[in-house]
């Protein structure tokens, strides 16, 4: 009996332990990616976060079933930018942009640095938030610290959709307690839609920029699919988008068409409650004005589009539902209809723009383009 135990221990030492060590990201892994002598403590932070995730979620390097997310590159700690952490995650996890399983989630620079990993088959999720005080440590100093000194939050949860939908009180409590540092809805939503069979990389790019999943960002994606069918761009053309009223959709459209505010691809303004009352019944769901502009001829073709959120709720079966993940359920359902955008998107009006002056008249400050195009009347 004793002999058997000794053999087991020996076999364990020979095969299992080295296997575990090898499965973990090491300094050599980062050197292979960034070059010898170039490893910094920021790289190491990405590796250490990945190693903890590998242990707690049981995966090995290169597992395509694993999604890695981080706000590294956006978060700036004590004046230090954090993009090197991303290479640490790539080196240790094998998750990459090209593999569609590494997402850099947009955040404002003053927010904490974090990493998150999601395993699709088990729906296990782990969030690790970096203790800001360790960012300026050396590699040697960092290597001497325990995991709970490096990360001030290490939180693992299972995020199966049924559990998210059916236990609103439990999840409201977790959200209130900020189990993922206040990133709960954002990261659970992005991980869940990443696992949706119809989710593609162009949508994920919009999701990274918008940094959460909601029916609003999905409505923008469906509007882009509708435009592809009904007002497709040809060479030398681009969209001039009037986000009136603006909502989450417009972040998706800016990313998908490079129709940014700064480059005058998008003009955004909101409607007041009084203005919304002036919308006729058939235009209550107005989403915006989309002009396919040809810079060579200085002419454009335009559509005023509406979006039907009641239909989205009906399709998701959430008309009477409550809880923190009702919007996620709606967004996931909207993704099912990505090839049938006309179920929720409709044309209110078609028009032409005959000159650059006509376009400028719609863009000017103080102009409500919906009034100019005859969709609604002015508030009296
Ligand atoms: Zn949103």
In DSSP terms (H or I, runs of 4 or more residues), the helix count works out at 17
Q: Identify the CATH class of the largest domain.
A: Alpha Beta
Tertiary shape: globular
Q: Structural class of the helices, strands and pairings?
A: alpha+beta
Signal peptide: 1-23
Organism: Desulfofarcimen acetoxidans (strain ATCC 49208 / DSM 771 / KCTC 5769 / VKM B-1644 / 5575) (Desulfotomaculum acetoxidans)
Domain Formylmethanofuran dehydrogenase subunit E: 209-300
Protein name: Metal-binding domain-containing protein
Written description of the protein model:
It is a single chain. The protein is an alpha+beta fold and 380 residues long. It folds into two domains: 23-195, 60s Ribosomal Protein L30, Chain: A (2-Layer Sandwich); 215-372, 60s Ribosomal Protein L30, Chain: A, CATH 3.30.1330.130. Helix content is 43%, strand content 18%. The protein has 17 helices and twelve strands. It has helices at 2-23, 27-34, 41-57, 84-93, 139-143, 147-150, 161-166, 168-176, 184-194, 201-210, 215-230, 249-257, 273-277, 309-316, 326-336, 356-363, 369-372; strands spanning 66-70, 76-77, 80-81, 102-104, 114-119, 124-130, 151-158, 237-243, 266-268, 286-294, 299-307, 345-353. It has a five-stranded mixed β-sheet, with helices on both faces. It has a five-stranded mixed β-sheet with strand order 9-8-10-11-12, sandwiched between helices. Strand 5 and strand 6 form a beta hairpin. The chain is globular, with a radius of gyration of 25 Å. The protein starts with a helix and ends in an 8-residue tail after the last helix. The chain binds zinc ion (ZN). The site of zinc ion has 6 residues, from helix 11. Residues 210, 212, 214, 216-217, 248 line the site of zinc ion. Residues 209-300 form the Formylmethanofuran dehydrogenase subunit E domain. Residues 1-23 form the signal peptide. Keywords: Signal.
